[in-house]
Amino acid sequence: MKTLKFTPPLVKMILDGNKTTTWRLFDDKDSQPGDKLNLQNCGTGKDFAKAEILEIQEKELGKLENADFDGHEKFLDQEDMLKQYREYYGEKVNLNTIVKVIKFKLVK
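Above: the chain sequence. Below: its structure as tokens.
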């Protein structure tokens, strides 16, 4: 089973049902709709939930649309978004970087 890691503030959003979409850059997991996932708190290293992938789309960060933000944390603007993803992935992130938009649901 594949694992997706989340920062502690995002763990709470997921468990509360407010976060049902994640964006992954430079992802080589070959995830597909229907795949089951372990969701892990990267602060503790412990799994906190299981999920199933509902849908995956790939596009450039600069071409994300309003629907891609449904179930995802919000940003003030594109610069704020780039800043956040550069903290995760480094300075190589730009508006042309390919992002996997992964929609998921929690499962028991």
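The domain at 2-107 is CATH 3.10.400.10 (Sulfate adenylyltransferase).
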